[in-house]
Design a protein that fits this description.
Elements: H1 3-10, E1 20-28, E2 34-41, H2 47-59, E3 69-73, H3 84-93, H4 99-112, E4 118-130, E5 132-133, E6 139-140, E7 146-160, E8 165-168, E9 173-176, E10 181-183, E11 188-192, E12 194-196, E13 199-201, E14 204-209, H5 217-224, H6 232-247, H7 253-270, E15 278-279, H8 281-290, H9 301-308, E16 315-316, H10 317-320, E17 326-329, E18 334-337, E19 345-350, E20 353-358, E21 364-366, E22 369-371
Antiparallel strand pairs: 1-2, 1-4, 3-14, 4-7, 5-6, 7-10, 7-11, 8-9, 11-14, 12-13, 15-16, 17-18, 19-20, 21-22
Length: 378
């Protein structure tokens, strides 16, 4: 799924667009005991509760693709009878009205999900009447020819509210606030099936994880039966390792600056394209070559890439590029530059020593104080 398709589903979680048919839940304590279960027709809930559920559901579709949101494909064996995909398909087709399937689903999560504390398993069913679109992207609400039927699960921590004082208006006094159990924003969840090309794709799912560096592999394996790609942090470390091992002693400042500038240029050229920008093995090699890597250093590139990332692994540019700043660090000095102005920092030999040289203008602050430079000193 791309961002536009994800946003289209998120827009369903509003009062004017909602078509959710059913919501189910199971509250689990820290000892993995089921404390309570519920199932309701979603639109029969009180309005205040509906808005709270909308917030939880939208959060489960929030974040960056390739970081918090991962498009996962089901292995073929999971689509056989008894497999994870086949089970989720039966659960969706039941419209969450089969109590035995719901119980099995909750049990699967409880047995696989590793979490310290209480949590709430939320599950919804929806049948979205997908509106048609004109060739120029305009939505035609009266021209739908397909229905996207899906389920979405989110797992939310449940924790005690913070202690404090509260005001009791009836007796006009302050007292110790009564602490209660509060449902927090989701830690993880998934949408099944995927909404690829604005159509149902039962062979894939969209997985959400609040912390991309702690992706709950046990949940993905036990509930979805899918393999996780490298995390965002893992991709960045892998990219850095590939560069360092490829260039070796020729890992010069100018080459790294060129890599940064070329990545920035690629991002700018790609910003109107909805699909996330990724780099496969050949594209990473081309990037290094374009950035000034010596030809002889690229002779063993394929082996180095396969060992570090895997032969068929593509890296998300948003994970490997420094989007917020261009940073140069020594043991005693850290320089952070606007990522679009890396050209302001260069290397130069001064009095026989290699130095970093920063181009400056007459607007300089030191510890928040405006200072004068030699160029405007009388």
């Amino acid at each position: 799924m791309i961002k536009q398709e994800i946003n289209e589903i998120k827009r369903l979680f509003t009062p004017s667009s909602c078509s959710i048919t059913r919501i189910c839940g199971c509250y689990v304590d820290g000892e993995k005991n089921k404390k309570t279960e519920f199932k309701e027709a979603f639109l029969s809930l009180p309005e205040e509760e509906i808005f709270k559920y909308f917030e939880l559901l939208r959060k489960t579709l929030s974040g960056n693709i390739g970081k918090n949101l991962l498009n996962l494909e089901f292995p073929m064996n999971t689509e056989e009878e008894g497999g994870s995909q086949e089970f989720l398909l039966r659960l969706r087709n039941s419209k969450l009205k089969d109590d035995a399937l719901l119980t099995e689903f909750y049990d699967r999560i409880i047995n696989s999900y590793e979490f310290v504390g209480n949590y709430l398993i939320l599950l919804i069913h929806d049948a979205y009447d997908v509106p048609g679109k004109t060739t120029d992207g305009l939505t035609m609400d009266d021209a739908s020819d397909t229905v996207f039927e899906y389920i979405m699960c989110c797992i939310c921590p449940v924790a005690l509210s913070k202690p404090g004082l509260s005001y009791d208006a009836e007796i006009n006094e302050f007292h110790n606030r009564v602490r209660d159990w509060v449902v927090n924003m989701p830690e993880t969840g998934f949408l099944f099936p995927s909404f690829n090309d604005r159509c149902t794709d039962i062979h894939s799912t969209l997985f959400f994880n609040k912390n991309p560096e702690e992706p709950h592999e046990e949940f993905v394996d036990g509930i979805l039966g899918c393999s996780l790609p490298l995390s965002a942090g893992g991709q960045k470390e892998t990219f850095q390792t590939i560069i360092e091992e490829t260039l070796g002693e020729d890992c010069e400042y100018e080459v790294i600056k060129n890599i940064h500038e070329n990545l920035t240029e690629m991002i700018e050229e790609h910003k109107e394209i909805p699909e996330p920008l990724t780099l496969d093995k050949k594209e990473v090699k081309d990037l290094l070559e374009k950035s000034g890597a010596p030809e002889e250093k690229l002779a063993d590139f394929d082996k180095l890439y396969d060992a570090a990332a895997g032969e068929d692994t593509a890296l998300f540019v948003s994970n490997v590029a420094s989007m917020r700043s261009f940073e140069v660090k020594t043991p005693d000095v850290v320089i952070k530059v606007n990522p679009e102005r890396a050209d302001l920092v260069n290397t130069m030999v001064v009095d026989g020593k290699r130095c970093l040289v920063i181009e400056i203008n007459d607007q300089i602050e030191v510890n928040g104080i405006n200072v004068r430079t030699s160029m405007n000193t009388p």
